[in-house]
């Protein structure tokens, strides 16, 4: 049975959530609760829930902080945030988080049911996949020597105590000097999206085979093992004049052999990080740690696949929001100078290549949001049609290299320019239509024919142009605009509901309420309560 943790600082909310669904029918057999983020984090690490249902805004430790810290230890845990309408932008900022859903207040039981059903099904599928993976991996790992793998991984993680070294070394079958010099090389496979779980085990087998074959052909002695689902490590004995260039060349050959085993046109990528030299087996974990840091540097290397560790402090300068406004200015003017500016951004990022990768991704996320906002301002409906925020989020967070982010940003800008050019003079009709609506929406009573007459067009042709360029009908735009104005008025308790309706062009308060709920999902009264909390 699955485990659920409910986190909210209001007991009434927690009790309501526990009572509103037949949890056992979804396979959830145990529910626990916490009233703040600190308690929730401690409980999550001990309880290990499959799903956490949490308020996003809590004192001291927010839902975002809780998710970030918990997922570092519980990567398969699913999060559902309960959020007010004003929390969406805050939620988007957690770009590095995965498996996130959110439900707006007031909570819809139907929406909660659908969300929980989806997550519990995902949990069951992952459990089945993990079981199959474990069975496949067990067979594979047995063939390459389970003891040797375990010993190599123990060395990477800090190793056994001194008294255990000789016993484990003898049991592993390795004939290597305890006091020799070693260099750790960490290999990380970046799997293509939606790869079957069985295929990942096969690819790790290919990598083991490539490591064994290449190092054997070069007469380099090494201990190798699987760290996790995407990473394998090899600790190379530095002997017989082995140099750093030799190690880099060997890592590159392993990459070539791995690609050959994967087959022509394989979408899977292999990256390698070479650590610093360790003096003795007891220090191998330090070489491994530096190899982990080196793998991170592959992100900045462009087409390179192998990085050598260089000791440098983390740097954040140069990755603030100073690029945002110039970039937005180029977009507003549709200025081709934006492309040299993007190249300048890339140059600055590579100059600060000790920056955190998440900081770099956040920079690109902000720039793309600027691009999409300007496209919306220009009513480029066809451009925006398939560009959902979730798509943007995942494209940025899943990027493996800086070059991928640059190519994606440049491609999106070029498509934006093409969309602007294709609209041409038609955009005047759209802008004039919108200006008419904004000037007259309070009066109500006007029709598409009235707007068309004002612009000296037929109603059918006007409707066609507007839908083609904005992706929505004139009536949809009109209602959405009026509801947005209504939201502003609802924030003031001094304005009665009847007056809100009248001031936004609705003569019938019942029709206003029905339209408001259809567009927002909640009634005007519920929206006012949320807005004034």
Automatic annotation (TrEMBL):
What InterPro entries does the record point to? CdaR_GGDEF (IPR041522), CheY-like_superfamily (IPR011006), Homeodomain-like_sf (IPR009057), HTH_AraC (IPR018060), HTH_AraC-typ_CS (IPR018062), Sig_transdc_resp-reg_receiver (IPR001789), Tscrpt_reg_AraC-type_HTH (IPR020449)
Keyword Transport included in the entry's annotation: no
- Residue ranges of domain Response regulatory in the record: 3-120
Residue span, HTH araC/xylS-type domain: 431-530
Keywords attached to this Swiss-Prot or TrEMBL record, sorted alphabetically, are: DNA-binding, Phosphoprotein, Transcription, Transcription regulation
Origin superkingdom? Bacteria
Record's SMART domains?
HTH_ARAC, REC
Instruction: According to the UniProt record, list the residues that bear 4-aspartylphosphate.
Output: 55
> What is this protein's name?
Response regulator
């Amino acid at each position: 049975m699955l485990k659920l943790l409910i986190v909210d600082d209001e007991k009434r909310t927690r009790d309501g959530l526990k009572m509103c669904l037949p949890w056992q029918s979804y396979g959830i057999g145990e529910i626990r609760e916490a009233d703040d983020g600190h308690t929730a984090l401690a409980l999550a690490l001990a309880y290990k829930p499959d799903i956490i249902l949490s308020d996003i805004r809590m004192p001291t430790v927010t839902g975002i902080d809780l998710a970030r810290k918990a997922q570092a230890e519980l990567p398969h845990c699913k999060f559902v945030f309960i959020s007010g309408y004003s929390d969406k932008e805050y939620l988007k900022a957690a770009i590095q988080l995965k498996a996130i859903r959110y439900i707006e207040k007031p909570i819809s039981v139907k929406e909660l049911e659908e969300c929980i059903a989806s997550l519990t099904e995902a949990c069951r599928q992952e459990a089945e996949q993990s079981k199959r993976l474990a069975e496949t991996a067990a067979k594979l790992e047995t063939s390459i020597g389970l003891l040797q793998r375990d010993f190599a991984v123990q060395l990477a993680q800090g190793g056994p105590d001194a008294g255990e070294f000789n016993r484990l070394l003898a049991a592993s079958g390795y004939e290597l000097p305890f006091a020799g010099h070693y260099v750790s090389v960490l290999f990380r496979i970046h799997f293509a999206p939606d790869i079957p779980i069985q295929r990942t085990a096969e690819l790790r087998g290919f990598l083991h085979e490539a490591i064994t074959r290449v190092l054997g052909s070069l007469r380099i002695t090494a201990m190798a093992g699987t760290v996790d689902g995407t990473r394998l490590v090899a600790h190379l004995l530095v002997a017989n004049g082995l140099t750093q260039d030799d190690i880099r060349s060997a890592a590159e050959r392993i990459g070539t052999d791995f690609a050959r085993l994967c087959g022509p046109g394989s979408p899977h990528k292999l990256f390698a990080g070479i650590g610093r030299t360790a003096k003795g087996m007891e220090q191998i974990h330090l070489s491994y740690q530096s190899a982990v840091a080196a793998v991170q540097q592959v992100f900045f290397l462009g087409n390179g696949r192998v990085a050598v560790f260089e000791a440098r402090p983390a740097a954040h300068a140069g990755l603030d929001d100073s690029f945002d406004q110039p970039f937005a200015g180029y977009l507003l003017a549709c200025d081709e100078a934006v492309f040299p500016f993007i190249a300048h951004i890339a140059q600055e990022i590579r100059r600060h290549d000790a920056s955190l990768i998440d900081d770099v991704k956040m920079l690109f996320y902000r720039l793309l949001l600027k691009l999409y906002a300007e496209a919306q301002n220009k009513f480029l409906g066809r451009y925006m049609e398939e560009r959902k925020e979730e798509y943007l989020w995942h494209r940025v967070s899943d990027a493996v290299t800086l070059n991928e982010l640059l190519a994606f940003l440049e491609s999106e800008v070029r498509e934006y320019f093409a969309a602007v050019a294709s609209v041409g003079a038609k955009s005047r009709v759209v802008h004039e239509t919108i200006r008419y609506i904004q000037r007259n929406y309070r009066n109500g009573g006007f029709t598409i024919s009235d707007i068309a007459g004002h612009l000296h067009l037929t109603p059918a042709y006007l409707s066609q142009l507007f839908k083609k360029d904005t992706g929505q009908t004139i009536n949809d735009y009109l209602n959405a605009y009026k509801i947005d104005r209504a939201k502003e008025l609802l924030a003031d308790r001094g304005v009665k509901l009847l007056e809100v309706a009248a001031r936004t062009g609705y003569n019938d308060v019942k029709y206003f309420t029905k339209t408001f709920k259809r567009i927002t999902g909640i009634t005007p009264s519920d929206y006012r309560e949320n807005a004034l909390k």
